[in-house]
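Hi! If you just cloned this repository, the fastest way to understand the data is to look at a raw example. We've pasted two of them here, unedited. The first protein comes first, obviously.
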Amino acid sequence: MEKSIFPVLKDMRHFEKILKSQHEIVVFLETRVSQLKDLVKYAHQHSKKVFIHADLVKGLKADEYGIEFLIHNVKADGIISTRGKAISFVKKYQVIGILRLFALDSHALDHNLKICNRVQPDYIEVLPGVVPKIITEVHEKTGIPVIAGGLIRSEQDVINALEDGAKAVSTSNPELWKLM
């Protein structure tokens, strides 16, 4: 994957805008389980790959059965989760697994790095994405590509994250989607 922006759909008012964009990947952050299948099907019809944040789907538990549902029934192209076990399930199905990591303090970071090294997700999403040293450190300690997310508020935040080694930036700010 070349460096890019992943538009994050958190407000359904922006769904059509994402579908009309040049972005190949869209992230569904907060959705309802009852809407997912149709939304993903519609996005696929517009040649979009859909990554779903399993932990934030209302009405779905991000366990093995929930992951199985997202992959087999909803046809998600990738799954995002803060749970290492959920990403382990995703990897069994050979679907893209993104482990979302919160860099709250040194203890949390060390704990999450151990999970990353054990689970070996395809990508690690680091939040907040505006901490350049952490983006670099996570990539160096795991060898796994990093996505910067959270608190990305400006074009400069996007540029900084990409310059600091992030492969992509995820943002729900529609103004920043047009940067790439």
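Ok, and the second one:
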Amino acid sequence: MKNLKKLKKSDLKTIKGGSAPLGCNNWNPAARCCRVWDAEHQGNPTCPTP
């Protein structure tokens, strides 16, 4: 187990949250969904409203 390295907190957030899909203007990394889409992708699903 010598090949393990300590990850920075920012790296963990990137791994956990993932990257925003193309056309997403407001990405929610915790829920992994898009809140607002641009005009071309308006019909895509958004985050459920609480």
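That's it. A detail worth noticing about the second one: The first helix runs from residue 9 to 17.
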